[in-house]
């Protein structure tokens, strides 16, 4: 079956070249390697960055980021952010409570990695769940991202008041039974995550595309992160995550990600249900 | 003439019957068909199950990186954008576009950029202008746009917006649509039984 696209549109061919050059520049001069990102999303984000910078072409955007550190920071943030929310996917939190927490209870100390934590919503959701299971004191959560800017926002843990209402509903759909307002303090800028939830979280820089494993974990969350990568980078990251998991450790991916058909699929077994929580079995 | 390799379809929440009727009237020898129907987050795979009974083609809610295969119908999952790469799908959780995730514009735009003139876009009933910009991109790249006759659409906003923004290669009623698609795709209409093409 032929699936070769014929690109006879010169404008698009020029743009493709410009994007390749921009990605080379980012990788060679700044160490941010987006060359193995899935093209469709990445290209949309680059075009959006160009519009926001008020430049007329990707080449102009390249010129700007090479000479303007602030513009560079904005581009990296635009390209690397993944939008998330607290308690996204009720299924996942319900399954985690039911299937993973009982096993974690048997461990004296629990190391967890949230890989690609972006602005932190998932990190705090997990902290709440562990707190309610009365095992948070035994946990250390390593939350990493490649963007120091996003990490800073995650560390601050301040979310807009109008989002908190949606998060409260999502929390209850995910099986939460407490009064959600226990977990944040409201102030004029929004809602700040309570200190009790932050104490065992370590935020640090880590680039899944280039950095190595830095510990062995009982649980890794990497949800809706690898959807932005091409197959080659996805496979690299899966190897890294596999090598960072203890035997019988858990790896949670997004609900539309599958490990079964990947190279290391046979080393994992999926837990029952639709939550896409896998357990390392080999 | 380039043979179409991808048929992308957009409709809003009320378009279920239109999609059911269309899939029921198409033979399994069609190219890959991709559908964005506006839907609520948390709707899960109800839509996919509803369509399965009406189609002679396998109806799939693709995972990330699912290969694009002819003769299959792909339904954008709830709360994700569905994007077309060359030969495979990717997903994103980027913010809603025109209040929609999945977004018809995102599907159409990425399909046009990956498959160029080999794309047919179909804009069905819809209560917003999502799809209009994507339809323009498909036509700009040499693909074909078919719009449901606004006079016959449950909600004419989407068809009218697409025609205003992009123009249309063909304007059709739902009854005419299967015949138009099979002709454009060069496949025989309404084959009997469930036999797969060679």
Explain what the structure shows.
The complex is a heterodimer of chains A (282) and B (198). In chain A, 42% of the residues are buried. Helix content of chain A is 44%, strand content 18%. Chain A is built from ten helices and ten strands. With 282 residues, chain A is of the alpha/beta class. The model of chain A is unreliable at 1-7 (pLDDT under 50). The radius of gyration of chain A is 20 Å and the shape is globular. Mean pLDDT of chain B is 92; it is low at 193-198. Chain B is of the alpha/beta class and 198 residues long. Chain B has six helices and nine strands. Chain A binds chain B through residues 1-9, 12, 38-41, 43-45, 82-84, 90, 173, 224, 226-228, 231, 234, 254, 256-258, 274, and chain B through 2, 5, 42, 44, 61-65, 68-70, 77, 80-81, 83-87, 90-95, 106, 109-110, 113-118, 140-142.
Descriptors:
heterodimer, A: 282 residues, alpha/beta, seven-stranded mixed β-sheet, three-stranded antiparallel β-sheet, 10 helices, 10 strands, globular, disordered N terminus, B: 198 residues, seven-stranded parallel β-sheet, two-stranded antiparallel sheet, 6 helices, 19% strand, disordered C terminus
């Amino acid at each position: 079956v032929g699936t070769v696209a014929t690109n006879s549109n010169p404008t698009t061919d020029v743009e493709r070249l410009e994007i390749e050059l921009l990605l080379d520049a980012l990788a060679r001069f700044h160490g941010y390697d987006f060359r193995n990102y899935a093209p469709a999303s990445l290209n949309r984000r680059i075009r959006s960055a160009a519009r926001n910078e008020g430049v007329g072409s990707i080449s102009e955007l390249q010129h700007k980021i090479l000479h303007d550190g602030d513009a560079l920071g904005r581009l990296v943030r635009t390209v690397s952010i993944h939008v998330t929310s607290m308690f996204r996917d009720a299924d996942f939190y319900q399954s985690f409570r039911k299937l993973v927490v009982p096993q974690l209870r048997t461990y004296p100390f629990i190391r967890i990695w949230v890989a690609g934590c972006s602005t932190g919503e998932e990190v705090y959701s997990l902290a709440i769940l562990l707190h309610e299971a009365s095992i948070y004191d035994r946990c250390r959560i390593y939350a990493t991202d490649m963007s120091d800017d996003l990490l800073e926002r995650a560390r601050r843990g301040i979310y807009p008041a109008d989002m908190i209402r949606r998060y409260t509903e999502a929390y209850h759909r995910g099986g939460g039974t407490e009064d959600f307002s226990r977990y944040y303090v409201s102030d004029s800028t929004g809602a700040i995550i309570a200190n009790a939830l932050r104490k065992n979280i370590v935020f640090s820089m880590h680039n899944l595309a280039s950095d190595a494993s830095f510990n062995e974990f009982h649980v890794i969350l990497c949800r809706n992160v690898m959807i932005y990568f091409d197959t080659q980078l996805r496979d690299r990251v899966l190897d890294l995550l596999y090598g960072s998991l203890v035997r019988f450790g858990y790896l949670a991916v997004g609900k539309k990600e599958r490990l079964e058909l990947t190279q290391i699929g046979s080393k994992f077994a999926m837990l029952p249900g639709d939550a896409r929580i896998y357990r390392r079995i080999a | 003439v380039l043979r179409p390799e991808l048929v992308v379809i957009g409709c809003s929440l009320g378009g279920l019957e239109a999609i059911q009727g269309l899939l029921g009237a198409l033979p399994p020898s069609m190219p890959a068909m991709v559908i964005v129907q506006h839907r609520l987050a948390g709707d899960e795979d109800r839509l996919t199950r509803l369509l399965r009974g009406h189609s002679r083609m396998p109806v799939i809610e693709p995972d990330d990186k699912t290969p694009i295969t002819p003769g299959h119908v792909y339904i954008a999952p709830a709360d994700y954008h569905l994007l077309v790469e060359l030969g495979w799908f990717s997903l994103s959780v980027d913010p809603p576009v025109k209040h929609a995730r999945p977004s018809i514009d995102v599907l159409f735009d990425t399909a046009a950029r990956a498959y160029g003139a080999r794309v047919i876009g179909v804009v069905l009933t819809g209560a917003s202008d999502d799809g209009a910009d994507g339809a323009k991109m498909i036509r700009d790249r040499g693909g074909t746009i078919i719009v449901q006759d606004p006079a016959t659409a449950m909600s004419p906003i989407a068809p009218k917006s697409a025609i205003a923004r992009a123009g249309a290669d063909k304007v059709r009623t739902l009854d005419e649509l299967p015949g138009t698609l099979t002709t454009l795709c060069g496949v025989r209409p309404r084959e009997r039984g469930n036999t797969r093409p060679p």
